[in-house]
Write a structure and sequence with these properties.
Blueprint lengths: L17 E3 L2 E3 L5 E5 L6 H14 L3 E3 L17 H14 L3 E4 L6 H7 L2 E4 L7 H9 L4 E4 L6 H12 L6 E5 L17 H8 L4 E3 L1 H5 L2 H13 L4 E5 L17 H29 L1
Parallel strand pairs: 3-4, 3-10, 4-5, 5-6, 6-7, 7-8, 8-9
Antiparallel strand pairs: 1-2
Helix pairs in contact: 1-2, 1-9, 4-5, 8-9
The chain binds phosphoenolpyruvate (PEP) and manganese (II) ion.
C-alpha cells in the first residue's frame, strides 16, 4: 500500500467533493478562483472582486499574509487585509481563500476565510498542517517548490489525519533548470494525482509561469488534463501591483480566460457524452 492512507484512492475510490458554500470543488465543472496576489487596499480589492465576479469567478483569492523572498518587500496588510476580504465577500457574495503563514495566526485567518491556503513554502510545515486541519475549514494545499508528488500527498495526509478531508490540492509549478519561466508547470501531476488520490486537484498557472501571457493557455491545458479548477491572479493595474504584477491578468484578460475555460469544459463534456453514446 501507499505511505499515504486517508488521501489515497486505495482507501476511498470515490472522489471527494470539497464544498465551500454553494461552490463544489471536485464535482463536474471546473471551479475558477481569482483575485490579486496581495490585498493592497479597499479600492484595489473591491474593484478586482467585482470584476472577477462579473466575469464568472466562483471564489475570490487574495493574500493578507504574504510569504516574500525579501524581508524588505510588502508583507501584506495582515488583519486589515482579512477584514477587507470579508468586506469583498459581503459585496460580491464570493467565498474567499487566503493564506496563513504561521501557526499563531490560524485561528485569526480561520475566523475570516472560507478556505485556508497553505502556500508552497509551507507545504512541509507539519505543525502548521495539523493546526490548519483542526481549524474546521476547507484547506487549499499548494505543492512545494521542489516537492515530489508523494511528499505533497503526505502533506495532505497530515491534514486528513486531523479528521479534515476537505482538502484541495493545487499544482503551482515546480523548480526546474529552465530560467525562462518562474517555474515549470507539471501537467502530468494532474492525471497522476487524480489516479493516486480522491482529493480534487486544481492548477495555479500564474505562479507556474510568472508571465501573464502564458496563464490562459496553461489554464486551458490544466482543464484538458482533468484539473478540477484553476486559481489565477488578477489586478486592475498590474504595472503598479505591490506583488506579482508580471503574472497578473487584467480584468479583460481574465474575462477571456473564463470564456476559454467554459469552452474547454463544454467540449470535454460533449466528447465524454458522444463517446458514451458511441459505446452503447
Ligand atoms: C500565492 O498563491 O499567493 C502564493 C504565494 O503562491 P505559492 O505558495 O504557490 O508561491
Ligand atoms: Mn502571487
Amino acid at each position: 500500500m501507499k505511505p499515504y492512507k486517508l488521501v489515497s484512492r486505495e482507501m476511498k475510490p470515490e472522489k471527494t467533493i470539497v464544498r465551500i458554500g454553494s461552490v463544489a470543488v471536485g464535482a463536474d465543472r471546473p471551479v475558477i478562483i481569482a483575485g490579486p496576489c496581495a490585498v493592497e487596499s479597499e479600492r484595489q480589492l473591491l474593484e478586482t472582486a467585482r470584476a472577477v465576479k462579473q466575469a464568472g469567478a466562483h471564489i475570490l483569492r487574495g493574500g493578507a499574509f504574504k510569504p516574500r523572498t525579501s524581508p524588505y518587500a510588502f508583507q501584506g496588510l495582515e488583519e486589515e487585509g482579512l477584514k477587507l476580504l470579508a468586506r469583498a465577500r459581503e459585496v460580491t457574495g464570493l467565498p474567499v481563500v487566503t493564506e496563513v503563514l504561521d501557526t499563531r495566526d490560524v485561528e485569526l485567518v480561520a475566523s475570516y476565510a472560507d478556505v485556508i491556503q497553505v502556500g508552497a513554502r509551507n507545504m512541509q510545515n507539519f505543525r502548521l498542517l495539523r493546526e490548519v486541519g483542526h481549524a474546521g475549514k476547507p484547506v487549499l494545499l499548494k505543492r512545494g517548490l521542489a516537492a515530489t508528488i508523494e511528499e505533497w500527498l503526505m502533506a495532505a495526509e497530515y491534514i486528513a489525519a486531523t479528521g479534515n478531508d476537505q482538502i484541495i490540492l493545487c499544482e503551482r509549478g515546480i523548480r526546474t533548470y529552465e530560467p525562462a519561466l518562474r517555474n515549470t508547470l507539471d501537467i502530468s501531476a494532474i492525471p497522476l494525482v487524480r489516479q493516486l488520490s480522491h482529493l480534487p486537484v486544481i492548477v495555479d498557472p500564474s505562479h507556474a509561469t510568472g508571465n501573464r501571457r502564458l496563464v490562459t493557455p496553461l489554464a486551458r491545458a490544466a482543464v484538458a488534463a482533468g484539473a478540477d479548477g484553476v486559481m489565477v491572479e488578477v489586478h486592475p493595474d498590474p504595472a503598479n501591483a505591490l506583488c506579482d504584477g508580471p503574472q497578473s491578468l487584467t480584468p479583460a484578460m481574465f474575462a477571456e480566460l473564463v470564456h476559454e475555460i467554459q469552452l474547454m469544459a463544454y467540449s470535454i463534456f460533449s466528447c465524454a457524452r458522444l463517446s458514451a453514446q458511441a459505446r452503447i
